[in-house]
TrEMBL record:
HAMAP family: OM_assembly_BamD (MF_00922). InterPro entries: BamD, BamD-like, TPR-like_helical_dom_sf. This is Outer membrane protein assembly factor BamD. Part of the outer membrane protein assembly complex, which is involved in assembly and insertion of beta-barrel proteins into the outer membrane. Keywords: Cell outer membrane, Lipoprotein, Membrane, Palmitate, Signal. GO terms for cellular component: cell outer membrane. SUPFAM superfamilies: TPR-like. It is found in: Cell outer membrane. It comes from Albidovulum denitrificans. It comes from the Bacteria. One of its GO terms (biological process) is Gram-negative-bacterium-type cell outer membrane assembly. Part of the Bam complex. It is a lipid-anchor. Belongs to the BamD family.
């Protein structure tokens, strides 16, 4: 576990006791920060950070360590903790900027992976429901990928992979939401375009089975039975355990159709790629 993560979890009361002892019995309210050493100020920041309601106070102390002792090891520690404090306070832009400053200043540090992870979280933790703009989701994906690729052996890589998959699924969910809206309005071509994006670009997400089913609905509504059957063929090969397969099977067989590849549409090409592996 990195030093930054370990120190972030220290008990505040113990930390404050250490500070009081270091001040030789003086009340901390009576001692100016300029009269304290870097370690004492840093530990005041830890004590504040241990109180979930006071991250802003912690940020102030960590910032003061940097200001008063800019070239010390404590300033280095304080910078990463400042980034963490901003994140805890949900000041994501400040957290991101501080984490980036840490990476620029200490690229080879043992806490560089944690700084990169905090930077990614500053985007990821702002992802809301699928109805919102997806710019932050794209940025979160890029930042999470940086953690995965640059620090594959770090303790943060596994969490970054999980969050990457969830963010990727989030983007697919946005396409599905819009596609379902167009389908409801009977704008079938527009709906097909959205569901196609999911099948072609987000085929590893949980949204793909429904996207294939919705494509069947759209194509049947347009009288394009070859495409509908081909979408069913992909659904039948890859997602038989889902409710979407069962519903698609009923929908197609009710019209005397099969889950079978027909024609040479874009779906037939997807089938050859994902089922037969002809793209390899």
């Amino acid at each position: 576990m990195s030093r930054a993560k370990s120190t972030a979890n220290l008990v505040g009361s113990l930390t404050l006791a250490i500070v009081l002892a270091g001040c030789a019995g003086k009340g901390t309210q009576e001692v100016a920060l300029e009269d304290m050493d870097a370690e004492q100020i840093y530990k005041l920041g830890e004590a504040e950070l241990a109180n979930a309601k006071r991250p802003d106070g912690a940020i102030r102390y960590f910032s003061e360590v940097e200001r008063l002792y800019p070239y010390s090891e404590w300033a280095k520690r304080a910078l990463i903790m400042e980034a963490y404090g901003y994140h805890k306070a949900r000041k994501y832009e400040d957290s991101r900027a501080t984490a980036q400053r840490y990476l620029d200043t200490y690229p080879g540090s043992e806490d560089a992976a944690y700084a990169s992870y905090l930077l990614a979280l500053s985007y990821y933790d702002q992802i809301d429901d699928v109805g919102r703009d997806q710019g932050l989701t794209f940025q979160a994906l890029q930042a999470l990928r940086a953690v995965i690729e640059q620090y594959p052996d770090s303790e943060y890589a596994k969490s970054a992979i999980l969050k990457f998959d969830l963010a990727f699924d989030h983007l697919a969910g946005k396409e599905m939401e819009i596609g379902r809206y167009y389908l409801k309005k009977e704008f079938y071509s527009a709906a097909i375009n959205r569901f196609r994006v999911v099948v072609e670009q987000y085929q590893t997400t949980s949204q793909t089975p429904e996207a294939l089913y919705r494509l069947i609905e759209c194509y049947l509504s347009l009288g394009l039975t070859d495409e509908a059957q081909t979408a069913g063929a992909i659904l039948g090969h890859n997602f038989q355990s889902t409710i979407w397969y069962e519903d698609a099977y009923k929908l197609l067989t009710k019209q005397g159709l099969e889950m079978k590849v027909r024609g040479d549409s874009w779906l037939a090409k997807v089938y050859r790629q994902v089922v037969k592996g002809e793209w390899l």
